[in-house]
Amino acid sequence: MHPVFATCGTSVFEEMSRLSAAHGAINLGQGFPVGMEPPEVLAAAARAMNEVSHQYPPMMGMPVLRQAVAEANRRFWGLDVDWETEVLITSGATEALADCFFALLNPGDEVIVFQPAYDSYGVAIRRAGGVPVPIRLDPPDWDLPRQRIVDAITPRTRLIVLNSPMNPIGKVFDRDELAFLADLLDRHDLIAVCDEVYEHITFDDALHIPLMTLPQARERCLRIGSAGKTFSVTGWKVGYVTAPPALLGPVARAHQFLTFTTPPMLQSAVAVGLGLGNDYFDGLKATLRQRRDVLAAGLRGLGIEVLPCDGTYFLCAGITGLGDDDHALCRRLTAEAGIAAIPLSSFYEDRAVRSHLRFCFAKETVDLERAVVRIESWLGQRQRRAI
């Protein structure tokens, strides 16, 4: 077995989901939404099963979806994109990330990764021969440590991975932070791999700004989107990459030797989804904002610290007074309280930050309310045992 995979083990998401199933827990760990799939998109997929070819679609993706991605870039972000040379369809955003790393990294190339970070980044970077260079963001404000980033850049630095809105902490990078990063790309001849799968899930006054929209970054960014997140169909595994031709070319070559294509009927349905009216996209935000507020208010009502969440569908909650090991606490919560969460330390390579848990609030409101009741009961039992 390759040493990268020999040492990475089973993902914490799979571990907690298995434990959740074993104990009949409410699964607020794994990040999949419940009850939010747009009927128009599901109906389009059903129609496509009878109307669209079941054979290999074009390697770059079906023209109808590539055109829809290009139009969505223009409509939502003001980006002028050539669908024929600047859009690639992939089997999910995780594949898109791997394509980028495999295509653009040479052995020993360094990649700046802001942590906490989605766990596939480090594995895919190492398997591509690269070296992840973690830059830690710390609670509660998750400020960008600008001097540490500057100091981390060496002649071997090749890429910066930017995830905004950011899983697991709900941070949305603002224009000033993006301008700082765009300047680094330009000054040091770097490329940004931009994981923007939560691009349509921001709240309150937070505004998602693709790094690619900044003029000095336009030719240095690969922008990754996800139908799974935008249309609450995570099992479909349809992703898309928008990038200038010089970057997309090698990424497409990596893609053709990984998955090669993505199911055509799903591509056709996602194209329909990207053309939905603003009422759908506004409704997505409103629904998730309401669910966020239900869970946040419930946890705060129990005296639990809840950090701000400007995007994604995750809340980070503090564990002060509940234990020093967030991973062990997650196991206990699942087994004893019937609530599955994810330890924040799992998103750091050195597990340095163990002070918070991540809860997914993209669930039915009734389940979020039930989860709060279960945690309240569990806390009460703890207090009684301590007397």
Automatic annotation (TrEMBL):
Keyword annotations of the record: Aminotransferase, Pyridoxal phosphate, Transferase
Matching InterPro entries: Aminotransferase_I/II_large, Kynurenine-oxoglutarate_AT, PyrdxlP-dep_Trfase, PyrdxlP-dep_Trfase_major, PyrdxlP-dep_Trfase_small
Cofactor or coenzyme needed: pyridoxal 5'-phosphate
Any one of the GO CC terms: cytoplasm
Coiled-coil ranges per UniProt: none
CDD domains documented for this protein: AAT_like (cd00609)
Cited Pfam families: Aminotran_1_2
Signal peptide coordinates: none
Domain Aminotransferase class I/classII large, first and last residues per copy: 26-375
GO terms for MF: kynurenine-oxoglutarate transaminase activity; pyridoxal phosphate binding
UniProt protein name: Aminotransferase class I/classII large domain-containing protein
Organism: Magnetospirillum fulvum MGU-K5
Lineage, top ranks: Bacteria, Pseudomonadati, Pseudomonadota, Alphaproteobacteria, Rhodospirillales
